[in-house]
Write a structure and sequence with these properties.
By secondary structure, this protein is an alpha+beta fold. The protein contains 28 helices and 32 strands. It folds into five domains: 195 residues, Sandwich (Immunoglobulin-like), CATH 2.60.40; 113 residues, Zincin-like, CATH 3.30.2010.30; 110 residues, Neutral Protease Domain 2 (Neutral Protease, domain 2), CATH 1.10.390.10; 89 residues, Aminopeptidase N, middle-beta domain (Immunoglobulin-like), CATH 2.60.40; 190 residues, Zincin-like fold (Alpha Horseshoe), CATH 1.25.50. Strands 2, 3, 5, 6, 9, 12, 14, 15 and 16 form a nine-stranded mixed β-sheet that branches. It binds phenylalanine (PHE) and zinc ion. Phenylalanine binds next to strand 21 and helix 2. One of its GO terms (molecular function) is metallopeptidase activity.
Length: 879
C-alpha cells in the first residue's frame, strides 16, 4: 500500500474508541493563506478498552506543537495520524493541546476549512474535521465545544459557530472575536464555523412551550431578496416536527448559511446548517417551482436532522442510514403533509418513487450495489448514495406501514427515550420501533425485516392470479426472489408489505387490504366475488420491489381509469408506455403507439376533475434510464430514439388536446409555488413542449413563436424556463436567440446560469451535436470546473443525464468522461467520484459501446495518483 492509500474498512471490525474526548476548546485565527488552530481537549482513557496509544486522525495539517497537561511530549506520525504513546496512566482526564495551521485558500476539496467568495466555511461530514485539527474523527466520540473565532473585522464582520454566542468584541489591528458555546455534546462531524461578509433575514418564533427562538438565514448582501421561501420553510419545519413527532427546537438560535461552493446539498451542523445556495436562494424571477419544492424539502431535511442525526447520532459510518434514511422519510412526510390534499400527497409520492426507480434501482443492480447498511468501504464519501438515503427511507416507510402511523410515532418516542444523547445503530432504531408495537407484524418478524438493512439488491415479486368462476374465488400466487449482488450470492426472503385492492368489472372497488409477504411463496385468497377482478397491487408503492404481473392492456387501461389508488393509476400508464417502448426496441423497428393507449392519454389530458400536476405525471413518458433497466442489453441511442418517437406520436396525435391543456393552464395567477398552481405551470410546460415537437414535424412556426413570446414575457422562472426548454427540445430555430437572450438576462445569477448550461448539455442529440456544444461551453467565460454546481450543470448533465447523446458509437463521449474524471479528481475527489459513476452500467451496453466504455474506465483506473474516492468506483466497475 502506498503512502496515503488506505485499506478497505469493514463494519465487522468496529471497536469502541480507546479514549474519550469530553471537552474541546478551539481557537481560530482565520487567514485564507494560513489559519492557526489551537485545540485544547480534555481526554480520558476508555476503561472498557485495553490500554493503547492515542492515535489522532489528521489530513493536510501543519503541526506546530503538542502539549500534555501543559508539558511538551514525544509523538510520532503514522500514516497521517498523530500517535501519542507516553500519556498519563489511569482513568484521570488529562489536557492535550495541539497547535496546527492549514491553508483554507488552497482547499479545493471543500472538505475541512475552505474559502468561498472571500468567506470561510467548513464541511466536516464525514471525515473533514481531521483537516481542521488532529482529532478522534469518528461519530461515537461526542464532546462539548467552545469555539473562539478571531479575524479581520472589515473582511469578516460575521463570525459564526455552533450553539450560543456568549461573547464578542474588538481586538487590536482591526481584528475582532466571537466566542460560541454549544450546549449539546456532539460528534466532530457536526462542527461548523462561518466567517465573512454576510447578511441575515431574521425571524423570531415562539414555540409551544412559550420559549422564544431566533431563526436566521445568512446570505451574501445581494441575495436577501431570495431568502423568504427558505425562512418560511424553516418555520414550517419547526412547527411540523413539534406537531407530528413532539420534537421541539432545542436551541435559542438556529442558523442557515448559504454558500455557492458546496459538494452536496446541505449540511446539518448543530444549530448552524450550511447550505448549497441552490437549496436556499429563490424568488419567482430566478427559481422554478421545482427549486421551491427542493428548498422546502432540504430545509426540512437538515432541520429534522437536529433530532434524527444530531441528538441521536450514528455509532459508525456504516450506520449512515440510521440518520439519512430516517431523515429522508421525515422530509418526505413533511412535504406530503404541507401539500395537504390526498391528490397532492400522491403527486409527491409518485415523484419520490420515480427517483427511487430511476436512480436507486440501477445502483442496486450495478457494481456499486450495497446494502442500506453497507458492510465495507474504501472511502465513506462514496456511500452517500440513493441506496442509503432513498432506499433507507423506504425501509423506514415500511416500518410505519407495518405498525401504523400512531404506532410509528410511539416508536419514535421510545427511540428518543432510549438513545437521546447517544451514538447508536440501525438495529437500535428498528428495535425501538418494534418494541413500541409488540402486537405488530414488525415485532413478530423483526429479525427477518432487518434483512432490508443487510441484503443489497431489489427484490422481485412475481404475482400470478387464478380465477375460479364457479366458487367466486380469486387466488394470487406470490413469490419473491432477490438476484445476486457483488459479494452476496444468496439472499433470504424479505418482509414485503403489499397493499392491494380489487377492481370490479364496473370499475368499482370490491375489496382491499394489506398482505405481508414473508415467505418465498405464498397465496392471497379472496372469496365471494361475482366476477374476475383486476388487481391493484403494491398500492402507494408499499415496498421497494419490482412487481411482475402479466396485466393485459385492457386491465391496465381499467386501472388507469378506475383505480382508487392514484399511485397505481399513474403506474398503469407507466406500464403501458414501457410495454410499447420494449416492444419497439425488441422488434428493432418503429413504435406505433397503441390506439387505446393514445385514447387513454387523451382521456386523462381532457379529464375534468383530475389535478394538473397528476396529469403532467401521467403524460410524462418513463425516463430512458428506467426503460433501459428493463433490458439485458442496452443501446442508449436506440432507447432514446424510441422514446422520442413515442413522444412525437403523443405530440401529433393529441395536438388539439395539448392546445386545450395549454390554454386552460397557461395562466396560473399571481405567483405562488403551491401544489395547485405549480401543477398548472407544469402541465402548461409539458403541453408547450409537445406543441413545439409537433410543430417541428409539420414545419409549423406558430407554436414556436408562441413559446418564444412566452419565454420573453413570462413573469416567473418556471414559465420562462419551460418555454425556453420547449424551444430547445423542439429543435426550433428560435432556440439559439432565446438561449442568448436568457444568458444576457441572467448573467449575474449563478444558479440561473447553471440551468442555462444544464439545458444545453441535456438537449436531445441531433446528429451528435451535443458533445461539441458541451466542449465549447467548457471554454465559456462563465464555466468554472472548480465550482461543483457549475461542473455538475455542464459535465454531469451531459454524462449522467443525457444517455442518448453521451453513449456515442465513436466513444468520444467516454473519452470526454475519462478526461473530466481525471481533471476533477485532482481538484475535488468527491465530485470526481460522482461523475465516475456515470458508467456504472457499462456491462449492459451493446457493442461497440461496451468495449469502449470498459477501455475508458480502465484508462481512469490506470492513472497512478488516483484518489481513494475514484479508485473505489472504477475498481468496482471493472471487477
Ligand atoms: N448529511 C448531509 C445531509 O444529508 C449530506 C452531506 C454529507 C453533506 C456529506 C456534506 C457532506 O443532509
Ligand atoms: Zn441528511
Amino acid at each position: 500500500m502506498r503512502e496515503g492509500q488506505t485499506a478497505v474498512i469493514h463494519r465487522a471490525d468496529y471497536q469502541a474508541p480507546a479514549y474519550w474526548i469530553d471537552t474541546v476548546e478551539l481557537c481560530f485565527d482565520l487567514d485564507p493563506a494560513k489559519t492557526r488552530v489551537l485545540n485544547r481537549m480534555r481526554i480520558r482513557r476508555n476503561p472498557d478498552v485495553p490500554p493503547q496509544p492515542l492515535k489522532l486522525d489528521g489530513d493536510e495539517l501543519n503541526l506546530a506543537r503538542v502539549l500534555v497537561n501543559g508539558q511538551g511530549t514525544s509523538f510520532k506520525m503514522e500514516g497521517g495520524r498523530l500517535v501519542l504513546e507516553n500519556l498519563p496512566e489511569g482513568s484521570e482526564p488529562f489536557e492535550l493541546e495541539i497547535f496546527t495551521t492549514c491553508c483554507p485558500a488552497k482547499n479545493s476539496k471543500l472538505m475541512g476549512l475552505y474559502v468561498s467568495n472571500d468567506s470561510f466555511f467548513t464541511q466536516c461530514e464525514a471525515e473533514g474535521f481531521r483537516r481542521i485539527t488532529y482529532f478522534l474523527d469518528r461519530p461515537d466520540v461526542m464532546a462539548s465545544y467552545t469555539v473562539l473565532l478571531r479575524a479581520d473585522k472589515r473582511k469578516y464582520p460575521v463570525l459564526l459557530s455552533n450553539g450560543n454566542l456568549v461573547d464578542h468584541g474588538d481586538l487590536e489591528d482591526g481584528r475582532h472575536f466571537a466566542k460560541w458555546v454549544d450546549p449539546f455534546r456532539k460528534p466532530c462531524y457536526l462542527f461548523a464555523l462561518v466567517a465573512g461578509q454576510l447578511v441575515a433575514r431574521e425571524q423570531k418564533i415562539v414555540a409551544r412551550n412559550g420559549k422564544e427562538h431566533l431563526l436566521q438565514v445568512f446570505v451574501r448582501p445581494g441575495d436577501l431578496d431570495k431568502t423568504e421561501h427558505a425562512m418560511n420553510s424553516l418555520m414550517a419545519s419547526v412547527a411540523w416536527d413539534e406537531a407530528r413527532f413532539g420534537l421541539p427546537l432545542d436551541l435559542e438560535r438556529f442558523m442557515i448559511v448559504a454558500t455557492s461552493d458546496f459538494n452536496m446539498g446541505a449540511m446539518e451542523n448543530k444549530g448552524l446548517n450550511i447550505f448549497n445556495t441552490k437549496y436556499v436562494l429563490a424568488n419567482q424571477a430566478t427559481a422554478t417551482d421545482t427549486d421551491f419544492g427542493n428548498i422546502e424539502s432540504v430545509v426540512g431535511h437538515e432541520y429534522f436532522h437536529n433530532w434524527t442525526g444530531n441528538r441521536v447520532t450514528c455509532r459508525d459510518w456504516f450506520q449512515l442510514s440510521l440518520k439519512e434514511g430516517l431523515t429522508v422519510f421525515r422530509d418526505q412526510e413533511f412535504s406530503q403533509d404541507l401539500a395537504g390534499e390526498a391528490s397532492a400527497r400522491a403527486v409527491k409520492r409518485i415523484e419520490d418513487v420515480r427517483v427511487l426507480r430511476t436512480a436507486q434501482f440501477p445502483e442496486d443492480a450495478g457494481p456499486m450495489a450495497h446494502p442500506v447498511r453497507p458492510d465495507q468501504y474504501l472511502e465513506i464519501n462514496n456511500f452517500y448514495t440513493v441506496t442509503v438515503y432513498e432506499k433507507g427511507a423506504e425501509v423506514v416507510r415500511m416500518m410505519q406501514t407495518l405498525v401504523g402511523r400512531e404506532g410509528f410515532e410511539r416508536g419514535m418516542t421510545l427511540y428518543f427515550q432510549r438513545h437521546d444523547g447517544h451514538a447508536v445503530t440501525c438495529d437500535d432504531f428498528a428495535q425501538a420501533i418494534a418494541d413500541a408495537n409488540t402486537q405488530s407484524p414488525l415485532y413478530e418478524k423483526l429479525g427477518q425485516f432487518k434483512r432490508w438493512y443487510s441484503q443489497a439488491g431489489t427484490p422481485r415479486v412475481r404475482a400470478v392470479p387464478q380465477w375460479e368462476a364457479g366458487t367466486g374465488t380469486w387466488r394470487l400466487q406470490l413469490s419473491q426472489s432477490n438476484p445476486p449482488t457483488p459479494g452476496q450470492a444468496d439472499k433470504q426472503p424479505q418482509v414485503i408489505p403489499i397493499a392491494w385492492g380489487l377492481i370490479g368489472q364496473d370499475g368499482r372497488e370490491l375489496a382491499s387490504g394489506m398482505h405481508v409477504l414473508t415467505e418465498a411463496h405464498d397465496t392471497l385468497v379472496v372469496e365471494n366475488l361475482a366476477s374476475e377482478p383486476v388487481p391493484s397491487l403494491l398500492r402507494g408503492f408499499s415496498a421497494p420491489v419490482i412487481l411482475d404481473f402479466d396485466y393485459s392492456d385492457g386491465q391496465l387501461l381499467a386501472l388507469l381509469e378506475h383505480d382508487t389508488d392514484p399511485f397505481n393509476r399513474w403506474e398503469a400508464a407507466q406500464r403501458l408506455a414501457v410495454r410499447s417502448a420494449l416492444a419497439a426496441i425488441h422488434h428493432g423497428g418503429e413504435v406505433t403507439l397503441d390506439a387505446h393507449f393514445v385514447e387513454a392519454m387523451r382521456h386523462i389530458l381532457r379529464h375534468p376533475t383530475l389535478d394538473s400536476a397528476f396529469k403532467e405525471l401521467v403524460l410524462t413518458l418513463p425516463a430512458e434510464t428506467y426503460i433501459a433497466e428493463q433490458l439485458d442489453v442496452v443501446d442508449p441511442q436506440h432507447v432514446h430514439a424510441v422514446r422520442e418517437s413515442m413522444r412525437q406520436q403523443l405530440a401529433t396525435a393529441l395536438q388539439p388536446d395539448w392546445e386545450a391543456a395549454y390554454e386552460a393552464n397557461k395562466d396560473s395567477g399571481a405567483y405562488s409555488p403551491d401544489p395547485v398552481s405549480s401543477g398548472r405551470r407544469a402541465l402548461a410546460g409539458l403541453a408547450l413542449t409537445h406543441l413545439c415537437i409537433a410543430a417541428r414535424l409539420s414545419s409549423d412556426t406558430v407554436w414556436p413563436g408562441k413559446a418564444y413570446q412566452r419565454f420573453k414575457d413570462a413573469s416567473n422562472m418556471t414559465d420562462r424556463f419551460n418555454a425556453l426548454s420547449a424551444l430547445v427540445v423542439g429543435g426550433s430555430d428560435l432556440a439559439r436567440p432565446a438561449l442568448q437572450k436568457f444568458h444576457a438576462m441572467f448573467k449575474d445569477e449563478a444558479l440561473v446560469l447553471d440551468k442555462w448550461f444544464a439545458l444545453q448539455a441535456g438537449a436531445p442529440d441531433r446528429g451528435g451535436n451535443v458533445l461539441p456544444a458541451v466542449k465549447q461551453l467548457m471554454q465559456h467565460p462563465d464555466f468554472n470546473v472548480r465550482n461543483p454546481n457549475r461542473a455538475r450543470s455542464l459535465i454531469f448533465s451531459y454524462c449522467s443525464a443525457n444517455p442518448g447523446a453521451f453513449h456515442r458509437a465513436d466513444a468520444a463521449g467516454y473519452v470526454f468522461w475519462s478526461d473530466r474524471v481525471m481533471e476533477l479528481d485532482a481538484i475535488n475527489p468527491q465530485v470526481a467520484a460522482r461523475l465516475a459513476r456515470a458508467l456504472d452500467r457499462w456491462r449492459k451496453l451493446a457493442e461497440p459501446m461496451r468495449g469502449a466504455a470498459r477501455e475508458a474506465i480502465a484508462r481512469v483506473a490506470a492513472k497512478p495518483d488516483l484518489s481513494n474516492d475514484v479508485r473505489e468506483v472504477v475498481t468496482r466497475a471493472l471487477a
